[in-house]
Amino acid sequence: MVKMLKICALIILIAISAHGLSYPYWYYGTTTDNNNSRDDAMFIRTVWEDQDFAFQIGRLATARSYHQRVEIALEYERLYSVNFVKDLEHSKLRGETRKLMQGLFSYLPDYYAVEINRAVIGLGTDEMALNDVLCCLNDITVDDIRYEYRRRFGSSMDVDILDDVSGEYEILLGDIIALRRLTWPHEDEIVELITKDFTDATLGTVPDSWFFSRSDYQTIKKASYQFELSDNNGINLSTYFNIKVLYRDDLTEMLRSIASFAEDPAKYYAERLWQALEEGDNARLTRIIVSQAYSQENLEKLNSALEVLADVREVTSWIMQGNPGQGDPFHRYLLQNLLQGNVIETQEYMGSIKFTPQSHPTFIHTREYFRSFLGDLVVFE
């Protein structure tokens, strides 16, 4: 019996290997909606050459959950023997809209592996991308990403990262990717120790960063709260890194990100998203939305945090910035609808889009004002 089970397992592994499927074996069959996933995959193939392909796949992406989107990608690969995410490279999608679709239909650890590879391979290092991925791994482990990285690129993620950074930042990243975050058995003593270290720290300095790479986020949150209570200025740890550290470097930015995420994940992502919108950083916009789109609850919390941030900054309209010189309006439209949990239902705004040099507002109102705003930016033919 045991021998028969081993033979069956071997046959399954050989079949998966021969097919070249692009997701780990445990992900297959995670949904019971296989028939609809197959229909969706066939639909994508049917509209592949259509002029409105961007709208069609955008509508599908906003109408499906994370698990359904991944299942669609799997069904597409089963049916047509080609990796769906890679096949999108040859579609009519362009720029950040294509990268957004690739991210939304990706198994999240695989998406993170691609983002890390983009950050470290080639000229220069994208430390912001490394920080965005590695600071806040709550539901996904480094091991998940490491496996996908090795499978996709055939090299060691750890080596590729650490060969591209240096100094104390390298030490911190080395700890983050090598160690697991722990719940300390004597948590109160650890929190007291960290609070004292930061309270006694010389202005502008950063105490030993080991606590931020090895502690679970709840412990970091507790330490931040205790520090806020003990510090005369009433600041928490993320604010300490923001205003008291004189020399802002990659290490400081990573520590601030970890502390901010531990204190309030939704607020952390809202502030990063707001910053990316103001700076026109479309790559970061995509990365943030994809990282949260695996959970509708996370997207709802993020949208609520954005509304709170808008009230605090006295911005009465919603913050979906649209700069024709820096991004595709349809990309921003997709982001807005993903955040608000809407399925795009009309393609009135689609057509042959040409940017015009007219001035545009920094902020636009939610939904009902988007159509008129987009009309100011583009000419429809």
TrEMBL record:
Domain of life: Eukaryota
Homology family: Belongs to the annexin family.
Signal peptide: 1-20
Protein's recorded name: Uncharacterized protein
Membrane-crossing segments per the record: none
Keyword Signal: yes
Organism lineage string: Eukaryota, Metazoa, Ecdysozoa, Arthropoda, Hexapoda
Annotated keywords: Annexin, Repeat, Signal
Matching InterPro entries: Annexin_repeat, Annexin_sf
Pfam families attached to this UniProt entry: Annexin
